[in-house]
Amino acid sequence: MPDLSLFIPNQWRNNRWLFSVLGVLVALAAGWLIGTWGVKGALMTIAVPVALCMVVGTLIEPKIGLLVYVHLSFLIGFIRFLPPETPLGTGLDSVLILSLLGTFLNGKRMNWKRLRQPILWLLIVWLSYTILEYFNPEAPHRPAWFYNVRSFSLSWFIIAIIVLVNPISRNDIRLFIRTWLVWSFLAALWAFKQQYIRLEPAEIAWLAEGGARTHILWGQLRSFSFYSDAGQFGSEMAGVTLICLIFFFEGTSWLRRIIYLLLAFILFWGFAVSGTRGALFVLLAGYPAYLFIGRNLMNILRGCLVAAPVLAFLMFTHIGDSNYQIYRIRSALSPTEDASFLVRLENQQKLRNYLKDKPFGAGIGTSSGAGNRFSPNHFAAQIPTDSWYVQLWIETGIVGLTIYLLMLVGIILLGIYKIWQLKDPQLAILMIALLTEFIGIAVVSYTNPILGQFPTSTIIFINTILFTTCDRWDTPKQEIYENRN
């Protein structure tokens, strides 16, 4: 990182009295804030300097801003513990824009040629469509467009630019994955606290305000940790379980393999206590994808030997049905016997009738949270989406949904092609893990609207750029051979 002292004017460096005066002024300001606002003032005296350091650090090194964005994406789940009007979403957007600004300010050391990557063109097509959706004549409240377009396309596009042109190293990728796993581990522990110890008052209040309808079933809590809901939490836990299993199978150090196996068990039980049945399909889709993309016969045989008994246990026995978590996981394999699944099909039939003459949908921002806020009486706002793809279908129509699905397929195919070209096996393992987790999340998004929710969206947006451009970190075979010797 650059030396921050270089940004201090020369005439200031020898004037110690100036810094003494500034220190006294800062101390007086902190005292006034604490005396006037109490605890809030004390928090401000800490938050303001930290925020200033973050702003300066991001402008000097944009990768810092991207890492802060990842951390804040997990922290946003604690909004339940804050006043209702706390603008955490706006704060996240500000960090992302600041990172983009820092990228432009450091333009001389950025590799702008990487913007020619196919992944960016796929995102441009989708972004262009969502921008045109602003003019959809069916939209009842145009300003609502801004609230959902960020999670639909805009944030993805900005993250793509930042990740593509910044000098990101393999160490940066490892740091990102470790950060992701650490936060997931903490999320699992928080869920265990909810399930086996107690809920916090703010969480109880959230359940009382309506969350209990979907998070307390037959007297059993569906743990949601510090995520938006149990659906997203369970899907994320299944996704990181898959990541840890891949690292276990592909690891070379037995110590690391044991650590990843233990972590996989912890995260899998985090998925179990969420009571999210659909999240099982993250594993059911991602695990076969890992075996296929890896193209390793021994792994395929080993994978079948591991998966077959587990599926047989769930599908053909009733062992463990007395345990609520095991029963919920088993019931995911019989969706036609589930009343809530049948209700979803009925809602989709209603939407099909409503959207049959609206190929471009009802307009971005008409369903889900934005719809309930800005146009609660609109038909689109009154039908539960229950699926990311259903939400896209409502707001962008069959045309938008088709473009989006084709983009996802294009991203997956591009990722497979890039990974198969890699010469470095260790890099290939990292990228296969990211790609297969993405495939699992893309499949489970049919049952849960998680692709547009923090922190899943942040992780997915970064991952897609990494595995579709992974050849930039590849190591020539000759160099790999020399390092081994």
From TrEMBL:
UniProt KW Transmembrane keyword: yes
Keyword rRNA processing appears in the UniProt entry: no
Transmembrane residue ranges: 17-35, 41-59, 66-82, 88-107, 119-135, 147-168, 175-192, 230-249, 254-272, 300-319, 398-420, 427-446
Recorded topology in the membrane: Multi-pass membrane protein
GO MF term list: ligase activity
The entry's keywords: Ligase, Membrane, Transmembrane, Transmembrane helix
Domain O-antigen ligase-related positions: 263-405
Cell compartments where the protein resides: Membrane
Pfam families assigned to the protein according to its UniProt record, in alphabetical order: Wzy_C
InterPro entries assigned: O-antigen_ligase-rel_domated, WaaL-like
Primary location class: membrane
Name of this protein: O-antigen ligase family protein
Species of origin: Spirosoma flavum
